[in-house]
Amino acid sequence: MSETTGASYAAAGVDIEAGDRAVELMKEWVKKTQRPEVAGLGGLGGFAGLFDASALKRYERPLLASATDGVGTKVDLARRMGVFDTIGHDLVGMVVDDLVVCGAEPLFMTDYICVGKVHPERVAAIVKGIAEGCVLAGCALVGGETAEHPGLLGPDDFDVAGAGTGVVEAEQLLGAHRIRKGDAVIAMASSGLHSNGYSLVRHVFFDRAGWSLDREVEEFGRTLGEELLEPTRIYSLDCLALTRTAEVHGFSHVTGGGLANNLARVVPDALHATVDRSTWAPGAVFDLVGRTGQVERLELEKTLNMGVGMIAIVPADSVDVALTTLADRGVESWVAGEITDRGAHASGAELVGEYAK
């Protein structure tokens, strides 16, 4: 009579011990993100992350803001390059910089990492990047989930997502209700592609041009892979600092859809934002995507950030102090446009002129 072996979770491809090992490796990084409101409350490994809401008593009418996002197909580049400790910066930036658009201070985040097979050191590296991003954003990483999905994902495949919560005083809420005719549009430089448009970028460089990630690109001064994996800039603390030194009417986080579409989201119906392309020169990566893929400019502009990652809308008499504040914080910024009457304009924002060379 032949012996049979019963089914098991391990035989199905899920390694619980590897998951436990990953948790132990990531603990030191999560600890670095602690804020006073989470210190001593449970810690990593509990069923839920805790945040001491008594800290909100100083607000007269606190509004909680929430956002969730991922980083799209950029994770495929991280996997192919074997670099896992930067993609977390992208995740944090995509979440917290949505929160700060309404003036909210990011308080805490949770993450979700889905893998085909748990490689403890790899998962810990991803969490390290998320934790470093949280430190840059001033928020706590209070928990998360690592899910192993054998059969659905390949052994080296993974994806990441995150959710964040912030708070803003109701009277200080930013948005379209504050924006006025004559306001200035201040652009803040991006660090590169950030985390949007990678399906187009990958199609251009890999499918059409046949380039490899280790190709040295003269325009970048580094390899294609290094340029494409450049982490998303995190603006939340810079934006919050700006609200303390200058009058700010609104922000716009330039993500999927491009600069004009995202700016239009915060412009009231009766007004119009005009952005002058001649006020900046997009980085080499944007030009190279366009030339290599023969991508039309309007297609580029509705897909990529074109060198602008965040927009601040301020009254004209706050421009100088706003630019000084951002410069003091190491953020390249410039006046890129203005708010005018809507008139006959079909959309709430548009780009005009030609880019600087």
TrEMBL record:
It is an enzyme of class 6 (ligase). Its main location: cytoplasm. GO terms for biological process: 'de novo' IMP biosynthetic process; adenine biosynthetic process. GO terms for molecular function: ATP binding; phosphoribosylamine-glycine ligase activity; phosphoribosylformylglycinamidine cyclo-ligase activity. It is found in: Cytoplasm. Residues 60-168 form the PurM-like N-terminal domain. Gene3D superfamilies: PurM-like C-terminal domain, PurM-like, N-terminal domain. Keywords: ATP-binding, Cytoplasm, Ligase, Nucleotide-binding, Purine biosynthesis. HAMAP family: AIRS. Belongs to the AIR synthase family. PANTHER family: TRIFUNCTIONAL PURINE BIOSYNTHETIC PROTEIN ADENOSINE-3 (PTHR10520:SF12), TRIFUNCTIONAL PURINE BIOSYNTHETIC PROTEIN ADENOSINE-3-RELATED (PTHR10520). This is Phosphoribosylformylglycinamidine cyclo-ligase. It comes from Streptomyces fulvorobeus.
